[in-house]
Amino acid sequence: MQQPVRIAPSILSADFANLGAEVRAVDAAGADYIHIDVMDGHFVPNLTIGPMVVQALRPHSAKVFDVHLMISPVDAFVAGFAKAGADIITVHPEAGPHLHRTLQLIRSLGKKAGVALNPATPVSVLDYVMDDVDMILVMSVNPGFGGQSFINSQKDKIRAIRQRIDAVTAGTGRVIDLEVDGGINAELAPVAIAAGADVLVAGTATFQGGPEAYADNIRRLRGPLV
Ligand SMILES: O=C(CO)[C@@H](O)[C@H](O)COP(=O)(O)O
Ligand SMILES: [Fe+2]
Fold this sequence. Notes:
By secondary structure, the protein is an alpha/beta fold. The chain contains eight helices and eight strands; from the N terminus they run βαβαβαβαββαβαβαα. Helices cover 32% and strands 19% of the residues. The longest helix has 16 residues. The mean pLDDT is 97. Fe (ii) ion binds next to strand 2. Pfam families: Ribul_P_3_epim (PF00834).
């Protein structure tokens, strides 16, 4: 069942010279999750941060650290991010040879396991891992950068995954989050929610305007549901 909407600011759009203060500011402004984009310059054409930065940020917020790994091969880094303080660890199926094994590894470390689908990755990649995921992330842009435009075709994918989640969780009490990541703003947030998303990543739309604007920006993303 679709859960109450949570907002996950992506710190990719934060001021990297003041990351601790930025995390505290979005926490105070009402963020539910802190979305941390990890890029390796190989799986995606950009380089960002590693476990040492996650560990350094951990004391700055008690909110859920939602760590999106865009690195390949991914398995060797999972334990490091778990130890650094990640709460949810999300991987791409293309980032390793054995998705099921990677999800089991994440859960064995006591963390929630997520799978991220690139815009061209079909929903069928989920066919045999629905029992092993706590979150499914739909990339509504190609991974690697903030500030890109939402790819419309992903609305159908969000709807299709919402149906699958509801089918496997009905009557079980299980929860699988459906997160949308990329190009989300106050106009598209209700579109993503109507399609079935319950976690919205927002980098540009959260951090635009500087710290004084964060609370309003997050409120606008929640829309009339709050
Ligand atoms: O994972 C990624 C990009 O690869 C995202 O988390 C973006 O960082 C979101 O940024 P906006 O599109 O909201 O600016
Ligand atoms: Fe992300």
